[in-house]
Protein: Methyltransferase domain-containing protein
Amino acid sequence: MEFPRNLIGQLITKASKTNPRAIITPLRQAKASNFWNLSRALEMDLMARNPHLETPVFVDKNLFLDLGGFDESLDPIDDWYLHMLLREAGVTFARIITPITLRERINFRELIRRKYERSRKIPSFLDRFPNAPQPKLSNKLKILWQGRKKLLSKPLVSIGLLVLKTIEFFAFWWGMHLSVINQKKRIKNIYSLPEVAANYEKRRLGTNYQRYKHYSEIASLSAYLNTRNKNKILEVGCGTGRITSELIE
Structure:
């Protein structure tokens, strides 16, 4: 990253006037004749000012520490986590027009590795933020469609961008696919899987008959337990803890 000379001054001025807790500074790719860097620069230009993809570069120190600070285990999606944590805390993002310049040469091996590693973090990220917009392909496709005139004005560079995004997509898909498989292998109790838990209530209590059946089961078990030692611990069911919690109540 290269900070322009006047950036710190602008930050101080912004902070003194509005006292923002988080400030977004746009990112841009440094000018280069390299074909792939031109493709990446086009992408960054299209994605600029998208509220779902931009994360503040400057955050109030106390706020940042309250949110947990920097967690290396979240890399390389720590920016997504920070964005969602700030939104969750109700923080409004301020903005500075002056961009920060990025100088990075496209390395396909590193590109694939980073995208693969990022995708492996997605399942846990979505468990924490199920409605997060960042991983949704539809949002990025919408941005590309809105910028179609700019894409058509640079056909060769746009083709390069298409190649880059195709490579990233397959690396991302493969990493996420393996992550889900490994997660299922580690979990012995299927009721703790998000996709099972999400549909459990609907299937378990989906009809009047099922609701009555559930009620009668709880009533019968409760009546039986009242005749026994109340201090004895008993776990009932398949491991979700739901029936046990209802009996305790």
User: Anything to note?
Assistant: The chain has two domains: 7-186, 194-248. The mean pLDDT is 79.
